[in-house]
Amino acid sequence: MAKVAARVLLTAHLFASGSGRRSAPNRDDEPPKTTSHLLPLPIPPRPRIVSKFSIRSVVAAARRPARGGSLGKRGGPCRAARSPAAAEGVGGEEERKEGRRRSSGGGVKGRAAHGHHAGVACLLVAVICLSCAAAAAARSPAARLHRHLKRFNKPAVKSIESPDGDIIDCVHISHQPAFDHPYLKNHTIQMRPNYHPEGLYDESKTNVASTSSGEKPKVQLWHQNGRCPEGTVPIRRTKKDDLLRASSMRRYGRKRHTTANPMSVNPTMLNEGGHQHAIAYVQGDKYYGAKATINVWEPKIEQPNEFSLSQLWILGGSFGEDLNSIEAGWQVSPDLYGDNNTRLFTYWTSDAYQATGCYNMLCSGFVQINSEIAMGASIFPTSSYSGSQYDISILIWKDPKEGNWWMQFGKDYVLGYWPSFLFSYLADSASMIEWGGEVVNSQPDGVHTSTQMGSGHFPEEGFSKASYFKNIQVVDSTNNLKAPKGLGTFTEQSNCYDVQNSNNGDWGTYFYYGGPGRSSNCQ
């Protein structure tokens, strides 16, 4: 900006001296060409500049003959020029006579021209000042915050306030964030999968279920205050406070980049520092989907930057920089949502959480077709210790015809799909499936966190006390759901969080998992 200001001031000086002449453009002065990003950057809004001087006042000043310091202080940049002799305070009588002769004839015209050039210089300097102020305003934290909010929040057909304080925006299906992706600009929305996995249930039962009274079941808290109309998708509104809580506005809605430790006991597990798991898994084959019914709880979180989740993972590639992952389940994350509510969530990445992917609808990628379920919204109700138990069913599978990865919530809600082009390894199939819990252990005060996993109780306590996954299945190459073979289990510290699997007729393949975190046996 300093170079630009110097160049404009030089031009103003040439005009003021009467020798300003427009020259042919120089190719060296052209701005360098830049390569475009894969994802289009949002156009920042034009900031409103509040200045002491308006453009109108500056132009009016430029039209007046220059006298002393026209824009304020005497001796400022708009001061009328004087002869070198006068400027130095010398010259005598002859100099003064010459000045009187100039002022009484052609000097009037000269002063007018001179005042005009000085006014042009004033105008150019003012434009520089305004440009500098505009650039500074565009870079301000408030402007960046506004740009991010505009990118996340699409125009709503209808908005619904949830009892927990969330705002659910009903956005036209073709205006959802997915279509910010350049590869989806002319995408034709696939309104239903070509095939469901065999052995699930009759496809005619995929419509929204009704209660005995004919009302739709309320599975998310915002349903108590309304529903989105057909042709729209419900999106949880991102608020200013959500962005201000984040460590970085640019990384909001994304997991931190982590990779597995190749020297761990089981190198295929996500053993990244600060994260702990209690999971069951299968590997060694090609997988085209997975299903589970997950017990829903509201675990306690010790630190705002920690979370607790229960989910299934669809994984492809190595556990290095090229990891592909599709994830779905429930989570409690104060940092992401601003409360301790249990929420439905999804996540995807094609490069081990580096530059691609995000939670829910916080970036382009997942294409939602359902108007009933909002990603990131609170699940209602949740289970209680020795009391009523609630669970959710999640199915993710690869459409054999189109190749997209679809997600279904319960028997009633086909939510949408991740287009296959988002992935490298998962464009074909998955090489590993995981089910279970994960927590962030930030080790407050140098000791293990007390953030709970699942119900906050160990697996041996059993039903209504410990959290469970039941009827876990995989989708094979023939598009059939089947029980997983060779199921393994893994946990970093079984004295903090543990997992125990089993099998019976009603629950199929199942396991209990979880724990309280810090205790006398977990430090």
Automatic annotation (TrEMBL):
Residues 17-43, 64-112 are annotated as: Disordered. Gene3D superfamilies: Outer-capsid protein sigma 3, large lobe (3.90.1320.10). Keywords: Signal. It holds the Pfam family Neprosin. Residues 1-20 form the signal peptide. Residues 269-523 form the Neprosin PEP catalytic domain. It comes from the Eukaryota. InterPro entries: Glutamic_endopeptidase, Neprosin, Neprosin_propep. This is Neprosin PEP catalytic domain-containing protein. It comes from Panicum hallii var. hallii.
